[in-house]
Amino acid sequence: MADFIHDNVIIGAGAAGLMAAYSACKSCISSVKKHDVIILEGKDTVGKKITATGNGKCNFTNSYQAEACYRSNDPQKAFGIVNKFDYHAVLELFSSIGIIARERNGYYYPYGEQAKAVRDVLKSKAESLGAVLVTEKRVTDIKYDKGSNKGQYTVICSDNTKYFVHNLIICAGGSAAPVFGTDGTMYGILKDMGLKVITPRPALCGLKIDHKSLRVIDGVRLKCNCSLFTGDKKNIIYSESGEIIFSKNGISGIPVMNLSRFAINEISYGSKCGLILDMFPETGENELTDYLNSIITDCKGKLGTALSAIINDKMLKVMLRESGLDFDNDIGSLNPQNLKNGLKKLSALLKGYTVSITGDNGFENAQTTQGGVDLKEINENTMECKKYPGMYLAGEILDVDGMCGGYNLQWAWSTGYIAGSNV
Ligand SMILES: Cc1cc2nc3c(=O)[nH]c(=O)nc-3n(C[C@H](O)[C@H](O)[C@H](O)COP(=O)(O)OP(=O)(O)OC[C@H]3O[C@@H](n4cnc5c(N)ncnc54)[C@H](O)[C@@H]3O)c2cc1C
């Protein structure tokens, strides 16, 4: 019996894959010839990662859009692609299929704030339009045969089944959060096919820091301006304000997640880097010193109590010790000059607390992957691979990592939609 040749096979049923399935089915409806759309998913259920996004609420896009939100070797091309199916288009499509949005400060979530709903609705719509979802089908190899009378592509799975395919959409994600099925093996398969893959590394993840009091400040949250430097402290390469959180082995929070990709790259190049935390970005150091002195003037009792409204008390204890003072010092019994010098040091620490970065929390704890298939390999109008006609790439597998705020999902929706509607 002749082998069956499929029209469209999608590898990976994550955000990009489900969107590609939906848009491919939509396009097929309007075409004269009937086409089939199959999704091969390695896990036992589809879209597992979607259900974990946005702390279970799924921050699926954002009204603030700029090139800087999409990090890549070619951010201009990345942003150009996003603009072909932008956040307005996502909101419109989602609304048309029942995913109405709730907006908070430009961040969009499904109205019921359940990430699972986004996965379930997309899955159900794709299936209603004719897509066939096959789970527990892990793709282990892809062969291209230009002259074949079967499909152009043979997709080989871990159970030795083979799919002969005309059009292939690869939406296998990156290496981040492998618990959701993304082990990064697709990079190897595509490299073997001759595609340029920029070294994948974690992005949007916490960082390990060198700090002797981490156990004391575990769980402390601080609002500050967080600057990443490399080599010399003056060489600041990224700054962002927001809330940071200390943990037993390091530091996280949105500013840290957003700068982590740059720190991880610097460390991989062998550079030393660290963070400068400015807890009073709107106040000059001298002004702050004067203010600290004014607080303790005519004040009796513990130094720590007098200063306790300045900053989290666990952090204050650490900083007072580093300034040569102690939280429990009695203000009246302190040598006035020592107190003055100590408050000057404290002010300098509040304005520029420096920690060295020693590593990252790995792909297991990262939200996305930096690096991946070079955007030069694809046609930005169709997401088709220039070297392989009929093979399309979408989502995190490509060299784009978004900032926190819904940009990674926006990238998955944009590229999945474009690829699906062009097969
Ligand atoms: C905890 C967490 C929270 C996040 N929160 C947000 C957020 O709120 N907003 C946001 O924009 N982004 C968020 N992200 C990032 C976002 O989820 C991803 O960037 C996005 O899901 C990538 O979509 P994708 O379709 O390319 O890959 P994925 O969604 O990772 O899907 C890839 C799919 O391919 C399958 N697969 C992989 N290899 C194979 C193979 N060989 N054969 C068959 N199947 C395979 C996988 O099992 C998986 O289902 C978060 C990520 C994590 C981990």
Give an overview of the whole structure.
This protein is of the alpha+beta class and 423 residues long. It has helices at 15-29, 48-52, 75-84, 87-97, 115-128, 185-192, 214-217, 254-268, 285-296, 303-306, 313-322, 336-351, 407-422; strands at residues 5-11, 37-40, 61-62, 70-71, 101-104, 107-110, 132-134, 139-144, 153-157, 162-170, 197-203, 207-210, 221-230, 236-246, 250-252, 273-278, 353-360, 368-373, 391-393, 401-402. The two termini are 27 Å apart.
State the main characteristics.
binds flavin-adenine dinucleotide; FAD/NAD(P)-binding domain; single chain; 7-stranded mixed sheet; 6-stranded antiparallel beta barrel; 423 residues; alpha+beta; 33% helix; 13 helices
List the helices and strands and how they pair.
Elements: E1 5-11, H1 15-29, E2 37-40, H2 48-52, E3 61-62, E4 70-71, H3 75-84, H4 87-97, E5 101-104, E6 107-110, H5 115-128, E7 132-134, E8 139-144, E9 153-157, E10 162-170, H6 185-192, E11 197-203, E12 207-210, H7 214-217, E13 221-230, E14 236-246, E15 250-252, H8 254-268, E16 273-278, H9 285-296, H10 303-306, H11 313-322, H12 336-351, E17 353-360, E18 368-373, E19 391-393, E20 401-402, H13 407-422
Parallel strand pairs: 1-2, 1-10, 2-7, 10-19
Antiparallel strand pairs: 3-6, 4-20, 5-6, 8-9, 9-10, 11-18, 12-15, 12-17, 13-14, 13-16, 14-15, 16-17
Helix pairs in contact: 1-5, 1-13, 3-13, 9-12
The structure holds flavin-adenine dinucleotide (FAD).
Flavin-adenine dinucleotide (FAD) is lined by residues 11-17, 40-43, 48-49, 52-54, 58-59, 138-139, 171-173, 176-177, 180-182, 185-186, 367-368, 395-396, 406-409, 412.
